[in-house]
Amino acid sequence: MNQQQLDDNQSMLSIPNNPLIAKSFYLRGTFENWGRGIGLIKRECLSAGLPTPIFLSKGGVVTVIFYFDQVLGRESLNNGGLNGGLDGGLNQSQRRTLEYITQHPNCTVISISSFTGLAKDTIDKHIRVLLKNNLIERRGGKKNGGYFVKEKG
Fold it and tell me: In the structure, what pLDDT confidence band is assigned to residue 5 with cuts at 50, 70 and 90?
């Protein structure tokens, strides 16, 4: 099944995988209703001044891609604290790589490449830039190690 991007004119059928668990969350007040999440997410992103996220659907699984300029409370990677040292800041592709590492600690170049659709060599270049600028670190051995966002401080 091909991956498809959902646009504003498409709606998604909201069917909980486990209706009993969903009902218990609903009765507990953990969420208010089924089928309103995408609209709420878009509205909250816009009200926070963030770009509208991208929603992808493949085989019944929905993936949401958020774009933002701040990662773990760091200054803007685009227009602020890092610009001077990075000769214009990180480009969008490098920021996306950093965001993936933030969300998937201990990830590998292969998993980043698979998610972003970028070639392994391109991800290797992004990793070198992020390592050089002390934003990430590699932990573990060659076979079982991965990349992590460096702790602040």
Answer: low
Tokens linked to 97: 């790589």
Q: Residue 128 is inside which H or E element, if any?
A: helix 120-132
DSSP helix/strand/coil, 65: strand
pTM over 0.70: no
CA pair distance 134, 122, nearest whole angstrom: 19
- Dist. CA 28–CA 23, nearest whole Å: 8
Neighbouring residues of 22: CB distance < 8 A, sequence distance ≥ 6: 16, 34
- Say if residues 107 and 99 touch (Cβ distance below 8 Å): no
